[in-house]
Amino acid sequence: MVRDFSLFTSAAMQRTKNGDPHAAVACAHAGPPIFFSPYNTRDGRGTWVITRANDQRKLLQDTATFSSHRSIFASALGENWPMIPLELDPPAHGVFRSLLNPLLSPKRVMALEPAVRERAIALIDMISASSTSCDVMKDFAFPFAVSIFLRFLGLSDERLDTFVGWAKDLLHGDGIKRTAAARTIVAFIDDLAAMRRKEPADDFMTFVVQAKVDGRPLRDEEIRGIGVLLFVAGLDTVATAIGFDLAYLARNPRDQELLRSEPDRIVLAAEELLRAYSTVQMIRVATKDIDFEGAPIRKGDYISCPTMIANRDPAEFECPNTIDLAREDNRHTAFAYGPHRCLGSHLARREIVIALEEWLSRIPDFRIKKGTAPITYGGHVFGIENLILDWS
Amino acid sequence: MRIIVHNAKCQGHARCWAQAPDIFDLNDEGYILPGDIDVEEKDELLASRGARSCPERALEIDRTSDALLDRLLFNQHCGG
Ligand code: SF4
């Protein structure tokens, strides 16, 4: 039941020119549905890996047996507080989720749409006015996704590069960089909370410091737990998704043309791209010994549910490795299953759709610039960089 | 056709609502409202699309009422 396979250390997970880490992990379906992977975390700790969508659904829906309380961020600092709501289990989880859900509900996101679109258009117009080529991650995907998100938090764009740098160190840096970044982010969130307490503004942090749960104000640690999670969660996931999507379209001119000439198809196509290029793995801790589909999981064991593997499950999706932008039956798990379904999923979706709509309507026939090769990698969040697009 | 809503399973993906906003109603937090949904024949395609797009399998399509109706009509036809 042990396999030498890891989202962190396997060959295809290293920085690779013109790599396709999603296709590489899809090979997991050739093996058993559940196996143990000795190095499948950043700290070299092993996890069980669940490959089938149906098993992931069962597992992530069963929060009593599979806890998400890991304090992963805090433990990097030798501390112990949960990121909220991600690292809380029900019922405590529900209280905070109910507090935050309305801020990012589908209807609320509709209200944010004009600002999101305006930001996308401004960036793309700037790019197309100055050149017929760009590094789309640096020039568009990151500035777009991160500035929307900073605006949501009530922060200005000025420090965008600094924030992205922190996120990079945290998610992809070595041990020392990670700890330093974690410390910096915590201090930043604590300061921000203190500032908004003194001088309330019309923003997310003010909402959190003024909020009440169970009739009491939030504790400092809870405010920090929420702030840190939101800060980290929004910094690179959407940008990465946009990057993988544009790389796909750059390499598949027919699909690119289809979406350009029939933009109504973009909403459905974005779901297929979310399925094919999802970027995160969920990790849970077993709260008791349990045999799960024949695997002897023991209390305290880590279990990984990589979305990118479930989303290529042939039992769930017809021809899972074919990217069919018109695919209809598409109950993918890019945002996970169960109560921890990504809180920002509705905003993320809209951002991706808007980015594709505006990019395709403003940038002509684009491809990957000759002589360049985008670099991809696996890990806790899959990534892509050096994506130089050319439309000369 | 009816759609049986397994409310406890809904995690607010809002996929159903995205497909068919007039058939599936969400609360302010973005989760589906409780109560099964009776679907008119003209809406069946949209409704089943919405139900089939739920990642949590919280929406079950129930055609037994159609079957009952069919049988009734058939029996009436045949004078049964
Ligand atoms: S798609 Fe499913 S989980 Fe999402 S709102 Fe509808 S019923 Fe709930």
From TrEMBL, chain B:
<dbReference type="GO" id="GO:0046872">
    <property type="term" value="F:metal ion binding"/>
</dbReference>
<dbReference type="GO" id="GO:0051536">
    <property type="term" value="F:iron-sulfur cluster binding"/>
</dbReference>
<dbReference type="InterPro" id="IPR051269">
    <property type="entry name" value="Fe-S_cluster_ET"/>
</dbReference>
<keyword id="KW-0614">Plasmid</keyword>
<keyword id="KW-0813">Transport</keyword>
<keyword id="KW-0249">Electron transport</keyword>
<keyword id="KW-0411">Iron-sulfur</keyword>
<protein>
    <submittedName>
        <fullName>Ferredoxin-like protein</fullName>
    </submittedName>
</protein>
<keyword id="KW-0479">Metal-binding</keyword>
<dbReference type="Pfam" id="PF13459">
    <property type="entry name" value="Fer4_15"/>
</dbReference>
<keyword id="KW-0408">Iron</keyword>
